[in-house]
Design a protein that fits this description.
Blueprint lengths: L3 E4 L2 E3 L5 E7 L8 E7 L6 E7 L4 E3 L7 E6 L4 E6 L8 E9 L2 E4 L3 E5 L2
Parallel strand pairs: 2-11
Antiparallel strand pairs: 1-3, 3-8, 4-5, 4-9, 5-6, 7-8, 9-10, 9-11
Length: 115
């Protein structure tokens, strides 16, 4: 089972930026879909962004133009660059990596947008 560890969360002011990282315990080269999800208090988990093995990306409408997902195979790491954050971006963020043997989740990391 691949272990995923998220980092980079915390408190940020509206309009600010934050970069989340998700580092895997082994090579991510074989993971064909990787993504970031989030779950706000009292709400269902929702998809934020995905990146496939060829590099194509997709975003939820609510973050399009503000967030950027990327992967660094050499560092076994998935990133989410969050710019122009707003109060609605407050949530626990989870990374997910799907490969030939299944789906793997990180433990989640809190992002709080507040002035």
């Amino acid at each position: 089972q691949v272990q995923l560890v998220e980092s980079g969360g915390g408190l940020v002011q509206p309009g600010g930026s934050l970069r989340l990282s998700c580092t895997a315990s082994e090579s991510i080269f074989s993971f064909y879909v990787m993504g970031w999800y989030r779950q706000a208090q009292g709400k269902q988990r929702e998809l934020v962004a995905t990146i496939i093995i060829g590099g194509s990306t997709d975003y939820a409408d609510s973050v399009k133009g503000r967030f950027t997902i990327s992967r660094d195979n050499a560092k076994n790491t998935l990133y989410l660059q969050m710019n122009s954050v707003n109060l609605e971006d407050t949530a626990v963020y989870y990374c997910n990596m799907r490969g030939p043997v299944g789906s793997n989740w990180g433990q989640g990391i809190q992002v709080t947008v507040s002035s």
